[in-house]
Amino acid sequence: MIPLPTFDETPIAALRNIDFSYDDGTVALQGVTLDIWRGEHIALVGGNGSGKTTLAKHLNGLLRPSRGRVLVKGKDTAKQSVAALSRTVGYAFQNPDHQLFCPTVAEEVLFGPKNLGFAEAEAVEKAGRALKMLSIDHLKDKAPLSLSLGDRRRVSVASVIAMDPEVLVLDEPSTGLDAREAAELMRALDGLNKDGKTVILITHEMRLVAEHSERVVVMAHGQVSLDCRTRVAFSEPETLRQSGVIPPVAVQLAQRLLEFDVSPEVLTVDELAEEVARVRGART
Amino acid sequence: MTGFVDLYSEGDTFLHRIDARVKIIAVLLLSVLAFLLSSVYPLTLLLTFIFILLFLARATLSRTWFALRFVIRFMVLIVVLWPIFDPSGTPVWATFGPVKITEPAVWRGITSAVRVGCLACVWYILMFTTSQRDLVRALVKMGLRFDFGLALAISLRFLPTFSATIDSIKDAERARGMELDKGGLLKRSKNYVAVLVPTIVSALRSADTLSLALHSRAYGARADRTYLREPKMRPKDAVALSIVIAILVVPVFFKYALGVPL
Question: Is B194 within 8 Å of A101 (Cβ atoms)?
Answer without folding.
Answer: yes
